[in-house]
Amino acid sequence: MNLLPIEIGLVMYAENAVEMPFFTGHVARGLLLHFIRLVDPSASALLHELDVSKPYSVTPLRFRSSSRAENGYLLNPLFPCKVSFRFLKDEYANYILNFFQKQNTALIFDTTFQIASMHINCKSYADLEKEAHSIGNLTLEFKTPTYLSNLNSNYHWMFPDPLKVFCSLMRRWNQFSDSTTFSKEEYLNYKEWLQKNVGVSKYELQTKLATMRNKKATGFTGTITYKLDDKENPYNKITHMLAKYAEYANIGGNKTAAYGQVKLW
What we know:
Number of helices: 7
Number of domains: 2
Largest sheet: 5 strands, antiparallel
Radius of gyration: 19 Å
CATH class of the largest domain: Alpha Beta
Helix content: 25-40%
Order of helices and strands: EEHHEEEEHEEHEHHEEHE
Number of strands: 12
CATH architecture of the largest domain: 2-Layer Sandwich
CATH topology of the largest domain: Alpha-Beta Plaits
Distance between the termini: 28 Å
């Protein structure tokens, strides 16, 4: 049985207060790669490769703070700290599961965190395909800063244009799916269908600056509702499938550092 895509969520408690940066996406990524490196250093090296589409995404660390610090927030150890790792290939999820069979602690900024619980959500690509259905509207919530590539420009695209969003998701689906994939001709036909049949009916978006060590990037957060026509066309159903897939894959640039986290409503 194929368990992909799969999400592994951790609930942790810090042994003492620790200062966290304002945006913790790179901290979550570092934690994931540390876990994998301890199980298989070669696998971690593969996930570090540059200019390669990575088969995973993460969420930022979510925690309650006791106060604001100069460069972030002071985590309150009395409350849980949560993080999720999403995988588009099951082999990497197995590394995490193997790690926690041997120990139940994690080290973040020299502070030990006890793993209180773990939850696993998974859907095969075939299941995502079967569960999709024709719809008239769909709403995506961009929970973390998101930006899209803008070819031949020094600037990122700062609006979730349906053509950019769903074409990107179809390409990512094709990279990792063990179920139906789409030919170049189908991709071009889908792109044409999107242009004619999918539009934006409303949105509430704002820009937000995220800082990761010495790097900074601006992205948009908020919600957008797309209107879909031509319900009889299979591409309508495929769009719903790709929107659900986005909850595992993230959208846009820097997905491995928790950019582009979305929720389908």
